[in-house]
């Protein structure tokens, strides 16, 4: 009787039924500056043209920022004949989004792909891809301009915690997962999985390419920091020094340094070529 007076209790919404409104797990800039994208919690990714954001900054009267941002407008927005004009939109990925990465088909160096003669779809010179890593282990590849689903990659068995594209424009994608593996995908070859990188004893939290795409760093639980030779797809060395799970890594722009961050409250700066800690923060 009491429950009738107060009211009926409603069952909570299942996580997969709710599209957004929870924690935001990931954010990414397009390499050409056209888009800023983030997960809105759960299934939805929002893409906003970065020029639109800059215009809002200018309208709010940030004088110091006006000169800075006006000189950094993306190349696409200065080209009157641009085929794909960025517009604000959302993508429903169908599952909780843990990771995002943009990839461009405009090559900066010769592609390391081998089998590129056949394609399910043809990449244009202005193609911009968005990769989303999902809770169910899938990776979905989208056309960032149109929101069209291009590829559905399904080999991981656990959460895809991080994604990174090779910066050489080859559209080689590496994914890091809680299934203790990294997987290398060739998006120019219909998303063919080229290699599985094994060696992590536990969850893989993150990964990052060196600027020349020759080395991959991966970090994870159990203090793991691994370096991989991406020409031979073999482990170069394990870097030891952290005292807890390592959750993030990044190379310096010239590739000479590697920074890693850990639950042990420390950030280490390494010489990745000899595996020596050069500086400690924290």
Automatic annotation (TrEMBL):
Source organism (scientific name): Pomatostomus ruficeps (Chestnut-crowned babbler)
Superkingdom classification of source: Eukaryota
Protein name, UniProt field: WSB1 protein
GO biological process terms held by the UniProt record: protein polyubiquitination
Stored InterPro entries: WD40/YVTN_repeat-like_dom_sf, WD40_PAC1, WD40_repeat_CS, WD40_repeat_dom_sf, WD40_rpt, WSB_SOCS-box_domain
Keywords: Repeat, Ubl conjugation pathway, WD repeat
PROSITE patterns assigned to the protein according to its UniProt record, in alphabetical order: WD_REPEATS_1, WD_REPEATS_2, WD_REPEATS_REGION
Keyword Repeat attached: yes
Residues in WD repeats: 153-195, 197-238, 239-271
